[in-house]
């Protein structure tokens, strides 16, 4: 089944996309190739193969949460380019008054 520029125009109208006649002529064979590829994939999928999200089975890949000590305030601020009142100092970006 080959898509005509009129078919693509109907689809574009449903999607509320304005296309020029040149774009319709250019997209028709491309969409036809995409539909042919989808048809090939549909032929491969068999009823006895369950749909999956991954090709291999996955087990829980997350590590368990462990409470660990973090940096203290002085150590964290030691690497900052600027600090003020025990906080990181950053440039103002919104122009708001304090």
Helix content: 40-55%
Q: What is the first-to-last residue Cα distance? A: 66 Å
Structural class: mainly alpha
Any idea what the radius of gyration is?
29 Å
The helix-strand sequence is HHHEE
What CATH first level of the domain at 5-44 would be assigned? Mainly Alpha
Please tell me what the overall shape is.
flat
Low-confidence stretches: none
Total of DSSP H or I helical runs spanning 4+ residues:
3
Largest sheet: 2 strands, antiparallel
Second-tier CATH architecture of the domain at 5-44: Orthogonal Bundle
Query: Strand-residue fraction?
Result: under 5%
What does the average pLDDT come to?
86
CATH topology of the domain at 5-44: Histone, subunit A
Query: Strand order across the biggest sheet?
Result: 1-2
Beta strands, count:
2
Protein architecture, described:
It catalyses: L-aspartyl-tRNA(Asn) + L-glutamine + ATP + H2O = L-asparaginyl-tRNA(Asn) + L-glutamate + ADP + phosphate + 2 H(+); L-glutamyl-tRNA(Gln) + L-glutamine + ATP + H2O = L-glutaminyl-tRNA(Gln) + L-glutamate + ADP + phosphate + H(+). Its EC number is 6.3.5.-. GO terms for molecular function: ATP binding; glutaminyl-tRNA synthase (glutamine-hydrolyzing) activity; transferase activity. It contains three helices and two strands, in the order αααββ. The protein has 98 residues and is mostly helical. The protein has a domain at 5-44: Histone, subunit A (Orthogonal Bundle). A two-stranded antiparallel ribbon has the order 1-2. A hairpin with a 2-residue loop joins β1 (83-84) and β2 (87-88). The radius of gyration is 29 Å and the shape is flat.
């Amino acid at each position: 089944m080959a898509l005509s520029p009129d078919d693509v125009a109907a689809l574009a109208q449903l999607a509320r996309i304005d296309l020029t006649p040149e774009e319709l002529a250019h997209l028709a064979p491309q969409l036809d190739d995409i539909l042919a590829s989808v048809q090939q994939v549909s032929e491969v999928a068999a009823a006895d193969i369950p749909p999956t999200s991954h090709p291999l089975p996955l087990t829980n890949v997350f590590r368990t949460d462990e409470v660990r000590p973090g940096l203290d305030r002085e150590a964290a601020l030691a690497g900052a380019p600027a600090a003020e009142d025990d906080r990181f100092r950053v440039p103002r970006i919104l122009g708001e008054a304090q």
